[in-house]
Input
Amino acid sequence: MAALLSAAMRAIDLRSDTVTQPTPAMREAIAKAPVGDDVYGEDPTVDALQRRAAALLGKEAALFVPSGSMGNQASLRTHTRPGDVVLASENAHLLRYEGGAPSALWGVQVKTIGRDGLFDAGDVRRAALPSEDSHVAPTRVLAFENTHNFAGGRVFPLDTLRDACAAARELGLGLHLDGARLFNAVVATGVPAQMWAEPFDTVSFCLSKGLGAPVGSLVCGSRARIREVHRARKLLGGGMRQAGILAAAGLHALDHHIERLALDHANAKRFADGLGALGITVRPAPETNMVMFEVDDAAAFARGLRERALRINAIGPGRFRAVTHLDVTAADIDEALARIEELVREMRAT
Ligand SMILES: Cc1ncc(COP(=O)(O)O)c(C=O)c1O
Output
């Protein structure tokens, strides 16, 4: 019966902003892209994307990498030696969701600071340990995540970020920004990408999240730093040949899919307001394209979602995350809410 019900319904996929299909215009840009062997440095479309990304972030250089995880890990390699400590936010993606890469690949330890994705200068000063004492694992780099995935798409307040970066510099630390969804922060705040990126040695951002490209991330920084990131990319097997096919999608995304992130943010708020009206606890209030909410009987709720062809990830006990994106309209949000209203009614009746 449940299978019949969901088979008759159009699926609405709110699992992640990574599930989008390339638009017809993006596919056309891909088809027309001039390409060459990028491992020989001969792909004009990759070059154009790298120049564009560096300019957007106000850095000297940028490198195209296959994924956000590789962007983070290749960056960390340039900041650390085995035994070093990386400071990062609670539940940072580079710690929680990258397969243990910092320790498995580079032999570094990650120490979390702050709460719910945020921290301040005091947290940095308390956590960083000196490199001179040979007993101590030296703290080498501070990593931010903005927007913060596990904290619900939260934007790091700019003043707090700058103060924490200044404290890190006083302590001689390197600075990395995991900006997988940096452009969501840009659109939500009106603060340009250059300003967010300014304090950092390395900034990675993803094309394959809210920007709607199928593959790829950029790491941006000084020319010397990006040379080191390039070496780390090689080590990780991340050199790609006629990668202009992918870079063309990225260029198209930067041209056409940044401003429209405001629609995703409005849809997230619409969804959160609708859930609230159904008596469902939304926490925290969405700032960008993610909606985190809580349900008592999570197993029954998850079953009910499946029966209604609603795809939403459970991310902890009783906790769900819905993400808005390019392939979700306001009408889809209203339809999802109507299906959830029916589910809630059914759960209350039993
Ligand atoms: C904050 C953050 N950083 C990095 C990544 C890694 O990106 P990828 O899946 O391309 O490796 C993700 C993926 O969702 C993310 O949310």
